[in-house]
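TL;DR need structure tokens for one chain.
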Amino acid sequence: MSCFYLSLQGKKAQMFVSAFVKNSLPPQRQDMIKDVLLRKAVVLEYSKRKKKQTRKAKAKGLTAKEKRQLKVFQIKPEHHKYDLFLPLHELWKQYIRDLCNGLKPESNPQTIQQKLLKADFHGAILTVVRSKCPSYVGTTGILVQEMKHVFKIITKENRLKVIPKRNSVFGVEIDCFVSHIFGSKFEVRSGERSAKKFKVKGTIDL
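>> reply
TL;DR here they are.
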């Protein structure tokens, strides 16, 4: 009985292998399949499914045109208030003191001037000392936005003034130390100024 059972199991195994090979191999005649099974070793392999690599789309920033349309860089009229930016001015003064290691009477003016030229001026109180356009002279306010060619300042009258850098000289005062900025030599973005080399003495054509 056991021999019959083993024989039956052997036949089932043989039939399974034959059917499996027949389904796995390319379409061939029956006699060719038998020849392969009798005379050659058949290596059964499986191919791994290749996972589809999905590239994550990088977040694209806004273009210059889109920024203009959305008015990203425009300060809302309800924010044109001098008192609103006074805390920013206090922060700027502390930033300059730390940058210059304290503004003392014995401090070297040229060293301080070089540091100021590379500093961030958002929050500074600027005064137009000289300009080709006489109407700008005397304008004073807190710098709230600096662009490549202009300064935007809020005056004590709560007005937003846009002053061109070119052909203008600006005065900035902190702790009794007065420095003058020649706008024509200052026409770079605030983020690029730290790597730019400046001459201490500027010139301006008025």
